[in-house]
Amino acid sequence: xxxxxxxxxxxxxxxxxxxxxxxxxxxxxxxxxxxxxxxxxxxxxxxxxxxxxxxxxxxxxxxxxxxxxxxxxxxxxxxxxxxxxxxxxxxxxxxxxxxxxxxxxxxxxxxxxxxxxxxxxxxxxxxxxxxxxxxxxxxxxxxxxxxxxxxxxxxx
Length: 156
Hints:
CATH architecture: 3-Layer(aba) Sandwich
Number of domains: 1
Mean pLDDT: 82
CATH class: Alpha Beta
CATH superfamily: HybD-like
Helix content: 25-40%
Radius of gyration: 14 Å
Low-confidence stretches: 147-154
Distance between the termini: 18 Å
Structural class: alpha/beta
Largest sheet: 6 strands, mixed
CATH topology: Rossmann fold
Order of helices and strands: EHEHEEHHEHE
């Protein structure tokens, strides 16, 4: 699991906050890595991954705190929408030799992207649901013989 975003810009750091919270809940059999904005620095981790669950703030037009699930193709088709971090993750996947890991992106609609270390109230309130969705995806991946397949973008 990759926590994306800038922790210093409030809701933009939701991916890092989620990774930290999930580590406290269940750190077993999952690499939960704080990538932040340094996607290319994590390429060596992606090489060993069968699947990558990326969590990031994504502006898709819903109310703050809305949770989305995307496939990489959803972001490639609409580069103006979404998150630069998630797009960079999808682009970085193309730099990997050999088989490329499947990627599922969980995004949270931000309310406040401004200097600060805390999440806005609606994004903080969405964090438990976000963690439940992440845990459900990880549980499915543990049960499946190969990497999980993404699903079309949708609110969860």
